[in-house]
Structure formats: C-alpha cells, structure tokens
Design goal:
The chain has a single domain, classed as 2,3-Dihydroxybiphenyl 1,2-Dioxygenase, domain 1 (Roll), CATH 3.10.180. It is about 20% helix and about 30% strand. It is globular. By secondary structure, it is of the alpha+beta class. A nine-stranded mixed β-sheet has the order 9-6-7-8-5-10-13-12-11, with helices on one face. Strand 15 and strand 16 form a beta hairpin.
Length: about 290
C-alpha cells in the first residue's frame, strides 16, 4: 500500500435532483454557492466565490422521474463544504438563518467545528472549518481524537461582532471553499475498508466511532466518512434514484490515478471508463470518479 499524495482533493460531487431550479436556489441562497461554468447540458454547476470560471463543488443533474432514495439504502450521508476560517463559518451560520432554513445540528469535533442541515430533497450537508493541525490530538496509537460535542452557536456568531454593514448584500461562500470530505452510508464497514483503504489506498484515521470508519490522505482527519448507522445490511445505492449520483477523487497526478485504477481492477471491483475519468463502483453501488 502506497501513501496517497497530500495534494489529493475531492469534487465535484454530483446529485440527481427532481427540481433543479428549486434546489439550485437553495444552494445559492442558504449555502452561498454560485453557478459556474457552462450549463448547456442541463447540469447546474455550483462553486464558491464570484469567479464564473471557478471549479464546481456541487453539480445538480436533473431527472424529474427519479424516485426518492430509501432512507436505509447506501448512498450519501452528507457532503461537507470546508470554509477557510471560523469567521467564514460564522457567515455561513448567518446566511442559513437569513434564508429561513433550519439547522439539523451543530457540533464541535475537536479537529473541526461543523453546522449540519439538509437540502430541499433531503441530501445532507455539513458546513465546517478546521482547527489548525497543530491543535489536533492523537492517542498513543496515533489515532486522531475526534468527538461530537455541542457547538456554542452564540460564541460562533460573536465572530461577526463589530462587523460593518450587517445588512449588506451577501457575498456568498468565499474563494478557497472546498469539498472537504464526503460521508457515506454503507452496508458493511469491513467491505468499505477493503475498498477505500485497500483498493483506493486511503489511510484509516479513526476507528473509535461505533458503526463508523474515517479514512484520509496526507494526514488529514478524513476525506471520507463511512457509517452503518441507518444502513447496516441495507440495500445498495439505486443509480436511478435521487441523491448521490457520484463523487470525484482527484489524485496528485496521472501516475497515481492510474496506479489506483489498476488496483481497483485487480481487486475485482466494477470499473468503467468514461470520457474524462475512470469510474469505480464500490461494494455498495456508489460510483466514484477517479481523476488526475
């Protein structure tokens, strides 16, 4: 097993949606993303900042006939947008409140602080900021210390105290916002580890959460979360349903992408070639685009 490049990144993540106009309006108003790139194919591409040529983070693929995903099936638990700093997270909190949208939760994970909500079609979203890596704690065995503690929203909101122009037009998610991680519902953690830490070469960073596993590259706390909380033994992802269509892993270079792609094939996982990517299918029917 070779260590993955620390420059590895994720995105875009693609969601099949029945109402692209309504869902896009939510991501723009409540999340602060902006439409980027071309949309002649009907796909709504959403990125951060005001540069229309910025890379997309979330892409909405319309399909009015797609049925809702069943709750206990494998698929997306949440997509996680990483903002540059705590002040940006405070702005995200204010933006959600001004849009009249409710949070599903807010947590201090020791390595990060996070806000949770869901889009109009039930896709989970995490908005978070990382604490400096120097503040991350590890056990004697090297496992990262992560927890789910209540986040003090009043303290977070005070990051904006004294800011001028409280009523000014929202500038949206700032440049530098990324798809920090993707959290998946899977049917079995052993099979998930064999694929994501075995064939794809991610390092397991946290085993301490009951029913969950976290993996990453480059010493990050996690690029992928994998849990069985509602999906243990559940059915595979339905590619025709609403929700997660696929997500992309962008490797450090073409050589690394090709090496991992070969490992996926040698391990016997389903793999197909598309115009711009190799697409691996994990043991739970989830499509993963392998890019360089």
């Amino acid at each position: 097993m070779a260590a993955l490049s620390p420059t590895l990144s994720l995105g875009p993540i693609r969601l099949t949606v029945a109402d692209p106009v309504g869902v896009a309006a939510f991501y723009e108003r409540a999340i602060g993303l902006r439409q980027v790139g071309e949309s002649g194919d009907g796909v709504v591409r959403l990125g951060a900042g005001t540069d229309a040529s910025a890379p997309s983070l979330v892409e909405l693929v319309p399909d009015a006939s797609a049925p809702p995903r069943t709750r206990h099936s494998c698929g997306l638990f949440h997509l996680a947008l990483l903002v540059p700093d705590r002040r940006a997270l405070a702005h995200a909190l204010r933006r959600v409140a001004r849009a009249g949208w409710r949070l599903d939760g807010a947590s201090d994970h020791l390595v990060s602080e996070a806000l949770y909500l869901s889009d109009p079609e039930g896709n989970g979203i995490e908005l978070y900021r990382d604490r400096p890596r120097a503040e991350w704690r590890r056990s004697e065995t090297g496992e990262l210390a992560m927890a789910t503690l209540p986040l003090d929203l009043d303290d977070l909101a005070r990051e904006l105290d004294g800011e001028e122009g409280d009523g000014e037009a929202d500038r949206g998610m700032p440049p530098g916002t990324t798809l920090g991680h993707v959290h998946l519902q899977v049917a079995d953690l052993g099979a998930a580890e064999a694929f994501y830490a075995g064939a794809l070469d991610f390092e397991v960073t946290v085993r301490g959460y009951p029913g969950a596993l976290f993996v990453a590259a480059g010493g990050y706390h996690h690029h992928l979360g994998l849990n069985t909380w509602a999906s243990a033994g559940g059915p595979p992802a339905d590619p025709a349903a609403r929700g997660l269509r696929d997500f992309a892993i962008r490797f450090g270079d073409a050589a690394e992408r090709d090496r991992v792609t070969n490992q996926v094939a040698e391990a016997g996982y389903l793999l197909r070639e598309e115009r711009d990517a190799a697409v691996a299918i994990d043991p739970f029917g989830i499509a993963v685009r392998l890019l360089a």
